[in-house]
Every structure is written in C-alpha cells, then in structure tokens.
Design goal:
The structure holds two protein chains of two kinds. By secondary structure, chain A is mostly helical. Chain A has helices at about 1-15, 20-30, 35-55, 60-75, 85-105, 125-130, 135-155, 160-170, 175-180, 185-205; strands spanning about 115, 120-125. In chain A, helix 3 packs antiparallel against helix 4, helix 4 (about 60-75) packs across helix 5 and helix 8 packs across helix 10 (about 185-205). The termini of chain A are far apart. Chain B is about 65% helix and about 10% strand. Chain B starts with a helix and ends in an 8-residue tail after the last helix. In chain B, the strands form two sheets. In chain B, strands 1-4 form a two-stranded antiparallel ribbon. A two-stranded antiparallel sheet of chain B has the order 2-3. In chain B, about 20% of the residues are buried. In chain B, a hairpin with a 5-residue loop joins strand 2 (about 135-145) and strand 3 (about 150-155). Chain B has helices spanning about 5-15, 20-30, 35-50, 60-80, 85-90, 100-125, 170-180, 185-195, 200-215, 215-225, 235-245, 250-260, 270-280, 280-295; strands at about 125-130, 135-145, 150-155, 160. Chain B is elongated and about 115 Å long. Chain B has 14 helices and four strands. By secondary structure, chain B is mostly helical. In chain B, helix 8 (about 185-195) packs parallel to helix 10 (about 215-225) and helix 12 packs parallel to helix 14. Classes of the chains: A mainly alpha, B mainly alpha. Chains A and B meet through helix 3, helix 4, helix 5, helix 6 and helix 7 of A and helix 1, helix 3, helix 4 and strand 2 of B.
C-alpha cells in the first residue's frame, strides 16, 4: 500500500502542475506542496473575495475574510477527505468566517463604508465599483442609486438570510449546495431564501 | 394550486428550484390567471433590478490579498518548522484507514486507562492532564424560532505538562515559549530555565537569538546570563560584540562587557576600541578603558 501511495505521489510530481486536475492539486497540497496550494487558491479566490465584498461591503473586512479563510484552508487541508466537493468544503469555511464577521458587526452595529476625505464623504465600496464603470451617465446614476438601495436592503437581512440570498442570487449556487455549505437542510435554506426575498422586495418596492 | 400558493413559489421558480411538476402547475396557472401573471411580471422586474447591482471591482484588492496571503503562508511555513513534537502528534491523525474512528476511540480508552495507572508513578514520564475550568469565549448568539439558541463558543483548554529539563520534549516547549511574542514575562521565565541547559546547541542558538533580537531588555539580559559560561565560543563572542556596539540598552551593554571579558581573548581589543569611539555612556566607557589598559592595549585610537 505504501509503494502504491509513493507511486501515485511520484506520478503527480512528474506531471506539470498546470495539467493537474483539482483532485491531484489537493493531494499535492496535502503533501505540503505550496505551489499546488497556490493554484487551488487561484481557482477560487476571486469568487471568495467577491462574496466577502458583497456580504460585508467593506474592503478591509473582505481582506480579513480572505486571509482568515485561506489560512484556515491551509491549516486544515490535511483533514479534507473528499467526502464532499472541495468547493463545498471551501465555501463552508468562507461563509462561516463571513457569518462571524456579520454577527460581530451586528453586536457593534453595521459599520459605515463611508469615509471622510478632504473632498467630502466617500463610500469606499461605491468608489471601488465606480473605478470600472463606463457608459451612459444617467444609467450610471440610476445603477448607483439602485446599488445603494440593494445594499441597504441586504443590510436589513439577518446574517444567515444575507448569506443565503447572496449565494443563491449572486453566486448562482443551488439550494442543496447552500444547505451543505451552511450545515443545514435544503428545506431550511429554501425557507431562509423565501424570507430574504420577501424582505428584499419590500425594501426595494420603490425601484421596481 | 391557489393563487397565494403560486405567488409563494415565484422566487423558487425563477431560480429553477422547483420540481418539474410544480413548474408545470405554475405555468398552466399563469396561462389562465391574469392577476398572477401581473404579479409574476412584477417579480421578474424585481429580479432584473437585483441584477443591476454594481459589483465592486476587486481586481486591485485581489492582488493585495494574494500578496498578503503569500507572506502569511511563508510565515506559517516557518512556524511549522518550529512546532516540534506536538505537530508530530497531530500528523499521526493524518493516517486514513477505514477503521480510523473505532480504532482511534479504542486507542484513546486504552491510553487513558493505562496512562492513568502507570505513567506518572511507575515511569516518571511526562504528566499531562486537563485542568478545570475550561476557558471559553462566546463569539455569537443566535436565537432560533423554535426557542432554542445557537451559541458559538471558542474554547481554550489548559494542559499542565511536567517533565525533567533533560527531556527533549520539555526543552522544545520551553524553546517555543521563548518565541512567544506576546508575553515577555513568559520569555524571561523560559530563558531562566533554559539557561541551565545551554550545553545543548539548540538552546545556545535560542539564547543567541534572544540576545540579538528580543525586543525586551529583560529577556536579553536573562539570555546573556545563560551565555556566560560560553564566552569562549566564537559565535557567542561575535554576538556579544554586536550587542556591545549596537544594543540600545546600557544595562545590556554593561552585561555584555562582563561576559565578554570573563574569557581572556586579545581579539576583543578591536571591538573595545570601537566601543570607546561610539559609546556615549560614561560608565561603559570607563569599564572599557580599564579593560584596554589591563590588556595593555591602546585606548587612544578614539
């Protein structure tokens, strides 16, 4: 058995890293290969950061979530046994870290993303969004107002509702997978999504 | 299906989260009910409005995050290299066999039984156990509608480990404590214990490292005490010379002179002459001059 395992590892080592599939990358990362771990991170880190940004609306907190989540993945990767997809396992960690941040924030009230500058108050999140904005100025203004409305509506949700809504609507994740990620049933995730949608609709009544 | 039931299904229908049967029922209901069709149209425009949210452009932030993560992973690698025998114990759990859980459980029971009976009294090995109370920190509280409550708790267990100084595992724990950045008192205590084992190369390295880099002068002084008997060692002398020339604490510099001069070696003349040129502290200059005169070396190069 030991020889077979050694053979597998040798075969993995002989394959160029860019040709390895996810399972092989995970196995190599579990053996301590940092390059394999970094490739795994690159596969997912953009969507992880986007999720954190959209849930927390704070670049600083999103950055903290990114570091905290991937360090947890690094420290616990040896415990990953392939009994669920790596995506589910990773998102379980990421959403837990995000939920911790959201709950802590509930205790100390929502943090404003608006900072004072010499040119007056600026919303950090809008500023990041605007950097990439192009096209019709009126549409941009409308979209900005709508975005602010959506952000405010999302802030009216509980941390769990916000996470479920973000994962379903903006990340396109299936309810069953959301249930797996949050350690609950598909039915519970469905109920949560229903409550979140009702609240969002009520908050965004003026935009629809 | 009633109109109210149909409307309740809109969110799931628009996400494709309904069964084919429910989907068919909704669509046939919509074909017949104008009121529900209007409600569905409104729901669709709500969904489209949600899609017009401006997502943050995280490209620049992503680059920063990747750089930070790489730095943290490098630090993690260094930390792992130092963790020693505790990590080896954790590595043991990486073996994956089908009967891992039952075998592990039986092994724990057996370990507890035999460990409690024999280890402390008969073999005098390391005694380890959990002490009460357990330290816990409630991170969040989330009530459920059912009346239950979810409480997230971070728990820290304190373990008392007892063993002789000669035991490499005890030494490793003490060496880990020397690197405990947040607690200088602990570093002083661990160096105070370790300095009696400076004949170990690893311990001597740790003492040299503490003398050269520890931000706390008390820790540096304690580490200097441990190096006194090794004043003849080339690496130790080089470290002491650096301390003498660069340490910002006069007390540490005085102690470095004490240690450096406890071993007769004319090669330190140059260092002492440098000290005479750079030292501002009157007492240290006097000590250095006395030493140079005792060694019949020139003190007039400054």
């Amino acid at each position: 058995m030991h020889d077979a395992a050694a053979g597998t590892v040798s075969a993995l080592l002989a394959t160029p890293i860019e040709e390895l599939d996810e399972t092989a990358l995970i196995r190599m990362a579990q053996k301590g290969d940092q390059e394999a771990f970094e490739r795994l991170v690159r596969e997912y880190d953009q969507s992880v950061l986007r999720l954190a940004m959209n849930l927390l609306h704070s670049p600083d907190e999103a950055r903290d979530v990114y570091q905290e989540a991937f360090l947890k993945v690094f420290r616990n990767l040896h415990l990953f046994r392939f009994d669920c997809s790596f995506h589910t396992w990773l998102y379980r960690i990421v959403t837990n870290v995000c939920l911790d941040h959201l709950r802590r924030r509930k205790v100390r009230k929502e943090e404003s993303t608006v900072v004072e500058t010499p040119d007056g108050p600026v919303d950090q999140v809008s500023r990041i969004a605007q950097e990439g904005a192009t096209g019709n100025p009126e549409r941009q203004t409308w979209n900005r107002e709508l975005s602010a409305g959506i952000r405010s509506a999302l802030e009216g949700l509980t941390p769990r509702e916000r996470t479920v809504f973000e994962l379903r609507h903006y990340q396109g994740m299936r309810l069953r997978a959301i249930g797996d990620v949050l350690g609950t049933t598909e039915e519970a995730a469905k109920n949560c999504l229903f409550r979140a949608t009702q609240k969002m609709r009520a908050s965004l009544e003026t935009f629809v | 299906m009633k109109c109210s039931e149909i409307v309740e299904q809109f969110p799931f229908h628009s996400y494709g989260e309904v069964s084919p049967e429910v989907e068919e029922r909704i669509e046939s209901h919509l074909a017949e009910c104008a009121e529900c069709r209007a409600a569905y149209a409104k729901h669709r425009s709500f969904m489209e409005a949600l899609d017009r949210r401006e997502d943050a452009n995280e490209a620049a932030l992503l680059t920063t995050c990747r750089i930070d993560l790489r730095r943290q992973l490098a630090a993690e690698g260094t930390r792992r290299a130092h963790v020693g025998w505790f990590e080896n114990l954790r590595d043991f759990s990486r073996f994956h066999v089908p009967l891992r859980i039952p075998v592990g459980a039986m092994a724990l029971v057996a370990l507890g039984y035999f460990g409690a009976r024999y280890t402390p009294e008969k073999f005098g090995g390391i005694r380890a156990g959990l002490t009460q109370p357990m330290f816990s920190n409630v991170q969040s509280i989330e009530p459920e509608t059912s009346g239950k409550v979810n409480i997230a708790v971070d728990e820290v267990q304190r373990r008392v480990v007892t063993g002789s100084l000669g035991d490499p595992r005890i030494q490793q724990l003490l060496l880990d404590a020397v690197r405990e950045e947040s607690n200088p008192g602990l570093r002083v205590q661990s160096i105070g214990v370790l300095k009696n084992s400076a004949d170990s190369e690893q311990v001597r390295r740790a003492l040299i490292d503490a003398v050269s880099h520890d931000p706390n002068a008390g820790v540096r002084l304690k580490a200097l005490e441990g190096l006194t008997s090794y004043a003849g060692d080339a690496d130790v002398r080089k470290t002491l010379a650096n301390v003498l020339l660069k340490d910002d604490n006069a007390g540490v510099r005085v102690r470095a002179i004490d240690v450096l001069t406890s071993h007769h070696d004319d090669s330190i003349v140059g260092i002492l002459q440098d000290v005479m040129q750079k030292e501002d502290d009157g007492y240290i200059r006097t000590r250095t001059r006395d030493l140079l005169e005792t060694m019949k070396a020139s003190v007039g190069t400054y």
